[in-house]
Structures
1.
Amino acid sequence: MKNPMGQKINPLGFRLATTQGHHSLWFAQPKNYSKGLQEDQKIRECIKNYVQKNMRISSGVEGIARIEIQKRIDLIQIIIHMGFPKLLVEGKPRRIEELQMNVQKELNYVNRKLNITITRITKPYGHPNILAEFIAGQLRNRVSFRKAIKKAIELTEQADTKGIQVQIAGRIDGKEIARVEWIREGRVPLQTIRAKIDYCSYRVRTIYGVLGIKIWIFVDEE
């Protein structure tokens, strides 16, 4: 039986072991796998909530591109890739220790050591998560979605990317009927596995309801 529908796949999962690596590295018995996955989710949420509360400016951009988690028997290593780490650390050098204590308390770690490091990204607006946060902030401030997307595309051009596609779905600009709008600039070869494509989906709450933002960024071809 023929299926005429388009088969959608997450661009990151599609490229694993070619141009994309795992954001979590650990081994577990099959019965403990779901527990480890939930633990990762809690760690990421805890870090994001802390960063949101303690950022020096209220720009709406947390600046977290990704959080990598590496687990060993007695140690959990967390690497936070941030676009603007100064906004979090400036004025309070003990913030990382405070964040470590927070995560340890939240997850009730007793026998495992936790180590958190922050690495700075050179071109933050070349990462879809940071760009999605920027667009979300604009939409919350009732900026027209076209203006927000065009500004985001301008920012990615400064980060030397080869192409970008942005999609927004929901009650855009407060219209009664939900719709999907998208804009593409440059090349975004989604079917080419060796093309390094960064992707994120982001949910933003506005006064009209929830909007979904999806961003694909074509970084380079290997």
2.
Amino acid sequence: MASTGVCLVFLAMSATISLVLGTPPYWSHPPTCYSKALDMGRDISARVADIKNDPETSYCADHMPYLYFDVHNACVMETMRSFMTMVDRMRQQRCGFTLRVRELRSKLGQLYMIIERRCHGDLVFTIDDCAALVRG
């Protein structure tokens, strides 16, 4: 009985500390499909910017636009498909085989599958502006 009381006190203290420090408790909910798509979209946008600015890959990525993922945009799937094709065509040049480019292609494929299969019906498309997803 005493061990149960100690466990309850520990849980109460850890929850209070988490709230005070602003960190979520260890039993918080797993990410939703929506939050996963948002996080991966931000990561992919940052990776594209890195590839365009990296001296090792910039010469073959200069034709690629900067990518801005908005999961509320109805054009997001079409834009991802065309961007994956652009990344695949980078393999014709040496920089297409660098680790950063391969990781970008992998992340694009993962996000595409997540949105297409797992998030189907969970995402609400409020915008239909394909030009807003790519920036020159």
3.
Amino acid sequence: MMQQETLAWRCVFPSICLHDLPCHFSDRLKLQKVKPAAMGRTYFVEEAVGQYLSDLSTKLKPYVTGLLIGQCSPQRDYVIRAVRTPPKEEQKEDSISPSKLASIDEEWITTHASQVSRMLPGGLLVLGVFIIATPELSKDSQNALRKLIFSVEKSLTKRRLWKPAEEEVSDRAALQICSATKKVVCRTYDVQDPKSSAKPADWKYQSALSASWLALDCTVNVNIHIPLLATSPNHDLEKNTKTGLNRWSKQIEDSVFLINGQVKDDDTELLEGQKKLRGNTQSSTQFSDVKVLTQLSQGSSHRSTATVQVCSASINLKGAVKCRAYIHNNKPKVKEAIQALKRDIINTLSDRCEILFEDLIINEGPHRKNFEREYHVLPQRLFVPVAGSSVMLSDYKFGDETAGEIQERFVEMLDQSVQAEDIHIGEEINTVNICPVTDNMDDMQQKQLTKGTLLLKLQQNMGVVIAAAVAVFASIFSFNYFSD
């Protein structure tokens, strides 16, 4: 039974606008293997991905683009899913595919990548782009892939509230397949280097690649208060929320993580002292229960400074978020697993806020003014299994969304059919009581606030006042002493 979680979003303000925010595949097709190059990366690929790419190569002409989903590690990379770029509405209606690579819609593909990244649990990411094209278009395919890889990475980086580690893998895969000869060419680009040139990589299919990956589960209690300054000309709720989440994400980064009740050294193996499942081709997940210990206050070495500011509104994020990360079973380090879970904690809260703001803008319009106090429930998290894998993909739903809408979204975004009974809700909506707040601050409240501000400032400057008094007293004493 999954732990139930509740997450609510509350915005309290007197009169501001809420929308001033914004058989094997290689055997069947006899693919030409890429020769591994020195220092090149190796991609181990789920065989189901090969079958999926095979089907695309026969159905869609003259070309089709898509995303590669998987996990990076220092030793090797894993590809467990490939997802085609969904066609636009006009392409669906006319059944027309563009005939030239110059017509590739870069913005459409990067938007798709952003949507897909929201549906990935911790440990998974968009680690590359693929293109399947006819021989006539093959010459220009690599240039198109390079451009897409950097555009997608730039788009995804903008949304992140965390920074990659220095030693983190920054290579992304560019996979090119000829629809006629079935030739596979895999190269990588270093997305941290805009002038990066292509490096050859090895592309290897493997059965049951993610059938027994490890999962880390945790529930994190959230109580974030974000004030909106009265001096601000307008209240950009989305921007202010992101600022507040940025501060909170640093707190998560500094937290202590207990894995099955123990603090483990970063460089030890995650499975140390546990039996590893070997030779298992059936999907099975080994879960680790994780507790997050958040630092409540800074150490004595940090100087704390208080700032008094008049605020006319506030945003409260309060509840318990369900978080999950997956990690490969090839001797993973504790550091890899904790990093994946930290990012899922940060991503899931940030993504929910983004989805809520988008929903409000779509339903109520971006230019509405003079809102009264409002209360919203953030979307629930749900999980959906992947056939032949222990990994589950993620998504979010509002209370009024039906299973049919969720199924449509999985088909559109991940090209995956989902049965209604396979949708597992990770949390349950509960009633949240909110204390009423006076919409208008009267004169007495203003006087109390001003008085409180002066008292606090007096307390902050008390040391200076006492020091000055002592100095004056000493001067008078010295003067009288020498006069005598």
